[in-house]
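Before relying on records like the one below, remember that each one covers exactly one chain. Contacts with other chains, cofactors or solvent are not represented anywhere in the record.
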Amino acid sequence: MACVLETPLRMSVLSEVTASSRHYVDRLFDPDPQKVLQGVIDMKNAVIGNNKQKANLIVLGAVPRHGSSWNTSRTPSSTLKGLSYHPMLLYLLQQETSSTELRTECAVVLGSLAMGTENNVKSLLDCHIIPALLQGLLSPELKFIEACLRCLRTIFTSPVTPEELLYTDATVIPHLMALLSRSRYTQEYICQIFSHCCKLRHWHSCGFKSSPQPLLCANGPDHQTILFNHGAVQNIAHLLSSTSYKVRMQALKCFSVLAFENPQVSMTLVNVLVDGELLPQIFVKMLQRDKPIEMQLTSAKCLTYMCRAGAIQTDDNCIVLKLDHDLKHAHELRQAAFKLYASLGANDEDIRKKIIETENMMDRIVNGLSESSIKVRLSAVRCLHSLSRSVQQLRTSFQDHAVWKPLMKVLQNAPDEVLVVASSTLCNLLLEFSPSKEPILESGAIELLCSLTQSENLALRVNGIWALMNMAFQAEQKIKADILQGLSTEQLFQLLSDSDVNVLMKTLGLLRNLLSTRPHIDQIMSSHGKQIMQAVTLILEGEHNIEVKEQTLCILANIADGTTAKELIMTNDDILQKIKYYMSHSNAKLQLAAMFCISNLIWNEEEGKRDSYFYVLSWTESIVKTKSFQGREWQMLGSSTMILRSRCKCSK
């Protein structure tokens, strides 16, 4: 493993060097060791988090840029001042006469440099940094070992570093295994190095069957085998019980790459005990919802690879984890997996797409909806709800798999916690662009949703009325009539007086969607007009927020758009006065909503009605004229009065 870096040759200083950078390098050659140490510390502070400074120091002096070479023949110490700073750092790092603190600081600076650009890493590789750092691991000083490992971790996790460099010297892997017991930092860094440098050797065709290429070019055993034969499983397993999350996470990643398409490793993992628990049991615990997403995903990978390798047996689609005195069934794994997918796809369209495109994923989710275990059903519905936020998937995968059918079955008889999530999912399936909307309507969903609005559970009331609101959007008159019949006038107004603002807003949204399209407006108002106008009056008079009153005024605007329905407003002086009041309200949203009411009221082609509409227009203009038209909204109001007057003229 030894590879001592010899004193580099003096070379010319490049023109890019700045005065400050030159100062850092000059201090490395001071005869006073303390000044050299302080110079390295100052250099560390200068380059940390500063890629520009790192690049500036890279080109300092005779630094061998990527693709160049440099002479390693011995030269007198008098030539050192022409050196690049990081070969000099490597030189200081390897000198036994350097103090441990100096060697440690040199490793820290080199590690910081490696965290810059890929070209930085290439330059360090050209300087043979890996053998120098590996040599440093032979030191008895723990702090120096940790600094070398941290730098090696940074270099090996770079995509430009060949993984094979870790396996060139046969003594490296066993020495790294031995270092695992030194500290939590050696554990974290070594596991991270292993997980990034463990590649499976197999053949792939790259799309052309006639020209296969191996993923690994060197002869001999693949990385998994090398690590396995040197006791990786036994040495890393106990790290899963570490108090450090980073150590546990890196150990878990090691097992995921070791088990990938490797039956030998997978079979071994099944029987490994950690603090009295088998590894599969530990992996299942790491899938729990309270664990970080990264941990859930990686432990799921481990279990998946073990299952594919046959290490975990399957029986009627039920994975059985064999424990000493306890059998944990597949529903625990599926429950955790569904929860994980639900979390991953909650707010990211690309992730939702990847989940759904996973082979047989939708079938698994649909099957999960009919599981005997309530917990699995709940997690499957949560997963479905997360995926239903995708417009594209509602139009494609959800329709292809007829997801609405098992979902409706779940809604027929389930605990409230399942009903809440299932009804939330149904709300999405009832959006206007969802192909599932029509078959859901035909399956008798209206009666089910109307019953939910009577639930004592607030979330179910909200979801029930929300789904009806989506159902009523641009619906046929028959569907609207069925909703009103199923809901009943009494229940509708019970919802309008609900103490929860979400229930009230969704109920107003339902009314607004019901009262759209002129014939529908006239039909509904002819049978329910008195009650609706009464409810509107109470809400406008009540202590409600701006959004509630704006929605209520929009309902009035829809009523005003009816041919006969608008008479219920024109003959109601109380409502007209309220509209007038909100036209001069301090809130611009309420002003505009009131103006829309007036705009729809003005338009009437019946000869006998013109006088009353001109009266409405006249006091509308009088209100607008009292305003200063400084804001955008009032400018819109001013323009609207011109439109209103033109409408009145057209109706003559």
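The first strand starts at residue 203 and ends at 204.
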